[in-house]
Amino acid sequence: MLISLDWIKDFSPLENTLTPNELGLKLTMGTAEVEGVETINMFWKEVKTVEVTHIEGHPEADKLNLVTFKLNDKESFRVVCGASNVRMGMKTVFAPIGTTLPIGFTLEPKKIRGIISEGMLCSEEELGLATDSPGIMDLPEDTPVGVDLLTLWGKKEDVVFDIDNKSLTHRPDLWGHFGLAREFSALYEVPFNSPFNEFWIKNIESMFTKDSAPMGVQVDPGSSCLAYFGISLDNVVVGESPRWIKDRLLAVGLRPINNIVDISNYVMLELGIPLHIFDRDLIEGKNVQIKSLNESITFTTLDEVERTLIAGDTVISDSKKPLVLAGIMGGLNSGVTESTTKIFIEVANWKAAEVRKTSTRLGLRTDSSMRYEKTLDSQLCYRSLLRTIELIKQLCPDVSVIGKPQYDGNNLEDFKPLVIKASVEEITKTLGKEISTHKIIDILERLDFKVSKGDESLLITVPSNRSTKDIECQADIIEEIGRVIGYDNITPVGPLLDVGPVRLNPLHILKRKAQDFLSQHSHAFEVTSYPMVGESLLKRAQWTDQLESLKLINSLSVEQDRMRDSFIPSFLEIAALNSKTYENFRFFELGKTYHFTEDKFSEEKFILGLSFYSRKSNPILDLLNHVERLGNFLNLPMDIVEKQPKFKNNVVDESWLGLHPYEFRNLRIMGKMDGAVFGVHPLILKTFKIKGNLAMAFIDLTQFEKRELKDKLSYRPLSKFPSSRFDYTVCLNKDQSVEDIFNALKKVKMGVEATHKIVDIYNPDNLEKFVTMGTFLSDSEKTLEGSLIKECEEKIINSLEKASIFLKKG
Amino acid sequence: MVEQLDSLAKEFNDKIKLLSDEAEVLNLKSEFLGKKGKVSEILKGLRNCSDEEKKIIGPKANQLKDDISEKVALKLQEFELIQINTKLKENQIDLNNRESLWFNKNITGGIHPRSIIQREIEDVFLSMGFEVLDGPHIEDEFHNFEALNIPGDHPARDMQDTFWFNDPKSPEGKKHLLRTHTSTIQIRGMRERKPPFRFIAPGTVFRCERTDASHEMVFNQLEGMMVGEDISVGNLIYFMKTLLKEIFKKDTEVRLRPGFFPFVEPGFELDIQCLICSGKGCSVCKKTGWVELLPCGMVHPNVLEAGGIDSSKYNGFAFGLGLDRLVMMRYGIDDIRHLNSGDLRFNTQFSAF
């Protein structure tokens, strides 16, 4: 919202020595964020009055003239001019080279059809004074020459503050200059001059007559109307507004239209309450009726757009048709035109939520709806009505009020001001600053609160326009004091606290350990991907989506319209992206997957995902090794097992086409298949244009969010007796795995401690491979005897033979 | 005989200097120390000496033997060293050929830049007695709005563009949504605790906003809350200043100005002096010299009550920090979309080693 300093000064006598930036900063620090400060009207110093002294036709163009004019006795200029109204002796406006016109155009030295033009004679349109103009400005005969327009028109330089609307969300009272002027007065401790006193009211009320009002008001209690004032005026002359009104509207970014429309905007910008002025001749019947629609209708608003209103929307209607969409915009059918002489002024208040609902639905946010949806104060409608009458009387002295204001709506007399009990001690304690009672009362009174001292507390009466939603309790009073004192004047101080040990919770410990291990040991990079996915990705991944219920109704794109139930599709996308750049890469993510449940709607799982890619080799075994080590590092009670038809994997759908048929292992955690390590099927890789090999691992860590994992390390005394080792080489055929050796060895009962490890694998061809095993025997009680070792050797060979694993021949 | 020994020593010293290989050294050794060597000959002659002479010559001769042995050993080591070094030179390794110079060696890894900053902040707060919490991403209207003093018709709901779920079964007011702020954890945190307590809650939040270089629909915040008796605005400023000093490693100028958030009263916006231009005004700070960093305030009594806390006895402060924004400021990242892109050209810039 734009605010004019000149306008503010109508009510708040701010020192002229304050710079625009100082004022802006003060408001930012005390009230609302000022996003920009601009000094305006400097332009009018650059354009000056001139007198045309010579006109000749352009030699190259029929419709252009070469116009010579004098700026003063010494300086004359010649420009190329296309205006048809140019004539000898004409007083008009000259913009020299270098001027930036309000329409955003900077004049540069330029040849027009071969002849240099030394600037420009301007039309009202080019000066931003009108939307359309027939020719260059034709100033009165007696206009002095060589004077800038700022001086000529008695314009003032002004400062415009751009205030962030969001920071006014809770302050309906600040949506006009009057309210903001009060803030300035309080912040600078200068008087606040309100002209709207008892005397002023009486003065305007004296214009009311005893005639019966030609237009009545009927409010249907079911509508969104809280208060509705209406008054009829005759003998209005619609015309151009005086410059001072136009200037103020232009300063805050509004286009002047005609005196009546401009007044309605002016009063809104001054007092913060929107109003609407009808051409009374276009209202049929003797009443306006405010009611909510029973059925859907179409209605053409002032902006000439046909809109569909639905049952429940509140409209103001005459006996035949709707005239205004309440609180949002008037209709095209009843607005003021140049021929209007009789008007009806509406100043009303509407329920914020209903205005917001309708304006949001229609996508129609207006100056009016923006204000109403902040919850305005019905008590102040009458003041706006009087101010409107005052201004119309000022601009159209012949105007006459017919009757007096008509009202319907809530009984305004019923209003009881809110009184808040606040303690000085609590105010100062909460702010952490000593402030005298006297100072607190002074601040509150400057902000229009009324304060009386109780026994131990202050009784604070809240002004009606601050209690619509803003001020409700002592905390709100604390804010008023704090912001005016200035939060920067509060000294930071540490609180007095009890001391106790604080640790990260198990989830965060787990997360950090996994991050450290995977980045530093596995050399993987942590990524984060979108928790939302879309159909096209899932389709490419051949992923069956079971999340219809976790679909968003207002997603921004179909690519991200539902929550993911697995990292897999996202991981494929990341791998595809990076396989173009890197020959090898490893990445991991710690994040969530989302699952629909009947009872709780949704369940979130905390998942660790890890993926290895290599263009040339197959990383699956590397990945499996890293996962195994990670499990040990995290103290996860985890083991790696093959596919088991009876136990379904919980993190990967085993029927997914993307699983490699031979590269799959379950990660069994506390008896459940809560993890998986697998290679991705080449067919899916092809769909994603990934050349090479990709392997992934996922572990569901949800159950460890609250459960700390115990350190598995333990100590055993060192044996005093030497251990013994013997090696042997066995032959495996292509259907046998090293695991078969270990399974066979597990069955052997040695009678002493035995450990078996692979020493080497020799793989001359694919048909059979030779595995050299080492078996370590030890006994913590005694030295191993030769006979016992021999016995063990035989047991091992027997057991292996039973499993069809034979010692290598020769 | 003494003179003989002295001249032998001199002779040996002169000769050994001239030798150039191992065999010559061994020959010299036997020339002097062998069974028929020069020193041995002298020692043989000792038999004929008087006891007094023996007392003098004996030790001296032994001393000479030891000297010769030691010098021979040193000379031999000298030759061996030359020999080995010649071999080592042949097998020299180029120590400049390090992994870091290679393309495509998986030698580095690293956590996400957001995780780096998040840890730093967590550790600062842990050291000051704050716990670290998190909560669900999918929330209901109660936790995201109602309990935070944002009723159904509140204009503040306009400020937060919420992602809503297709959720026909839940009643009005209980509809499910993606949390728009980490403030939901205030409610969950309060309900599980008894004052006094203090915690922070880093987490992912969602806004239905078009994505561009500075806006993301999925981003991260860090919420903080402290509840107790007699908590003041002065305390809030103290913690915020401490945090910023720890993060930016220097005293950062901050300012606190009024800000409107329904769940705090009074509410503030905390700005820090622009780190790019040191407050002089630049494009990053829109020429103001200040950058909006975190909304904060004293917890609204209605929010305390919604969290099951007696607002007449306790009060507190809360703040919310745009974690992603902070990460971008710290590392000078120009586009927020990189954070969730999974593009390793981005992530590899944050190698841990």
Please explain how this structure is put together.
The complex is a heterodimer of chains A (810) and B (353). Chain A is of the alpha+beta class and 810 residues long. Chain A has 6 domains: 2-41 and 158-188, Phenylalanyl-tRNA Synthetase, Chain B, domain 1 (2-Layer Sandwich); 43-152, OB fold (Dihydrolipoamide Acetyltransferase, E2P); 198-411, Phenylalanyl-trna Synthetase, Chain B, domain 3 (Phenylalanyl-tRNA Synthetase, Chain B, domain 3); 419-488, Phenylalanyl-tRNA Synthetase, Chain B, domain 1, CATH 3.30.56.10; 506-704, Bira Bifunctional Protein, Domain 2 (BirA Bifunctional Protein, domain 2, 2-Layer Sandwich); 724-807, Alpha-Beta Plaits, CATH 3.30.70. Helices cover 25% and strands 28% of the residues of chain A. Chain B is an alpha+beta fold and 353 residues long. Chain B folds into 2 domains: 2-90, no CATH class; 113-350, Bira Bifunctional Protein, Domain 2 (BirA Bifunctional Protein, domain 2), CATH 3.30.930.10. Chain B is built from 12 helices and 9 strands. Chain B has helices at residues 2-18, 22-33, 38-45, 51-90, 113-127, 141-144, 156-159, 184-191, 233-248, 301-306, 323-331, 344-347, and strands at residues 131-132, 138-140, 176-178, 197-206, 218-228, 254-258, 264-273, 290-299, 315-322. In chain B, the strands form 2 sheets. Chain B has a 7-stranded mixed β-sheet, sandwiched between helices. In chain B, helix 1 (2-18) packs parallel to helix 4, helix 2 (22-33) runs antiparallel to helix 4 (51-90) and helix 5 (113-127) packs across helix 11 (323-331). The longest helix of chain B has 40 residues, at 51-90. At the A-B interface, helix 2, helix 8, helix 11, helix 13 and helix 14 of A face helix 5, strand 1, helix 7, strand 5 and helix 9 of B.
